Amino acid sequence: MEYANAAKIFPKPLLDEMRKHFPAGMLWMPRQEFDRAERAELVARLIRNGVPVKEVAALAELSPRHVYRLAETRGQTLHADNPETGAAPAMSSIRDKKGDETQ
Does a structural domain hold residue 47? Predict the structure, then answer.
């Protein structure tokens, strides 16, 4: 979380309006959230374009594991042997291997 002085960021008229509602103290402002469908589409597009998983995760504010899951639900596979994407094996192939061992 980052802290900043509101007087240095906001114009005086806006600061005066904010003081009408919150005279003094620390005010927390939540980050604007992505629409989930929009974020999933962003992830899919980046993966199709060969962007590395770690970079996709950072851009979409997700964990790499979640990126793999989103890719899998959209039928995209990520392979470890692809040096351009730096991707790990598709989650479905990991599950298949685990399923084979337990049966």
Answer: yes
How many domains does one find in the chain? 1
Query: 45: domain range?
Result: 34-102
- In the chain, the largest separation of any two C-alpha atoms, in whole Å, equals 68
Model's pTM, two decimal places?
0.46
DSSP 35-95: PHHHHHHHHHHHHHTT--HHHHHHHHT--HHHHHHHHHHTT----TT-TTTTPPPPHHHHH
For 12-66, the pLDDT digits (tens) are 999 999 899 888 888 777 777 768 888 888 888 888 888 899 999 888 888 999 9
In a domain, 81, yes or no: yes
Euclidean distance between CA atoms 30 and 28, whole angstroms: 6
